[in-house]
Design goal:
This protein has one domain: Helix Hairpins, CATH 1.10.287. The chain has 5 helices and no strands. The longest helix is centred in the middle third of the chain and has 27 residues. The chain is globular. It starts with 6 loop residues before the first helix and ends with a helix. Bound molecules: magnesium ion. Magnesium ion binds next to helix 2 and helix 4.
Length: 110
C-alpha cells in the first residue's frame, strides 16, 4: 500500500484525537462527529475569509491581517480537522486517498 499520509502526521492525528476524547469523555461518538463536522466548517470558513482578504476587495483591517503564513496555517487547519473527522468516522484516509487518486489518474491521464 502506498503511504499518502506520513507516519508523523498520522501519529499527531492519533495524539490529538486521544486528547480530544480525554477532555470530552461525556460526549458520544455521534456527538463527537457532529462537533468535528462543525469545527471543519469553521476552519473552511477561516480559510475562505483569508482567501477573500487576499484576492478580493476587503475592509482595510482585514487586509492588514493577511499573511502567506496565516493562509498556509488555515489550509493546514482544514487538512488536520478533516483527518480528525475521518478518524472519528473510522475512515482509513490513506486507503481513501490511494483509491481516489487512482480514479483521478484514470479520468485525467488516460
Ligand atoms: Mg483556523
Amino acid at each position: 500500500m502506498i503511504t499518502m499520509i506520513t507516519k508523523e502526521l498520522h501519529n499527531i492525528i492519533l495524539l490529538i484525537d486521544s486528547k480530544l476524547r480525554d477532555i470530552s469523555k461525556d460526549i458520544s461518538d455521534k456527538e463527537s462527529i457532529y462537533a468535528r463536522s462543525i469545527k471543519l466548517n469553521e476552519e473552511v470558513w477561516e480559510l475562505m475569509s483569508l482567501v477573500l482578504a487576499n484576492y478580493w476587495d476587503q475592509r482595510d483591517e482585514k487586509l492588514l491581517d493577511f499573511s502567506k503564513e496565516k493562509l498556509g496555517h488555515e489550509f493546514a487547519d482544514v487538512i488536520i480537522t478533516t483527518l480528525l473527522l475521518a478518524k472519528s468516522m473510522d475512515i482509513d484516509i490513506n486507503e481513501s486517498l490511494v483509491s481516489k487518486l487512482i480514479k483521478i489518474k484514470e479520468r485525467w491521464l488516460i
